[in-house]
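Lab notebook: predicted structure, single chain.

Context: the supervisor wants predicted structures on file for every construct in the current expression panel, including those that have not yet been purified. This is the next one on the list. No modifications to the sequence; it matches the entry in the shared construct table.
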Amino acid sequence: MKAQKTRTLQEVRDEFLRKGMSMSSWANKHGFEVATVSQVMTGRNAATRGVGHKIAVLLGIKDGEIVE
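Prediction complete. Output recorded below exactly as produced.
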């Protein structure tokens, strides 16, 4: 599997601004609770496994695999 370049949280926030997208709209689009996305983006959720891991990988802030 090819490793993707991870992004910083600031790069993710900048992309949201560039696209005119809020964190809550991203969460809704991907089927996540807004609070969980917020916790991952602020560091309150370590994103080591489960939903937090999936969010971090989809946002590109963590290199990893999503295994269903």
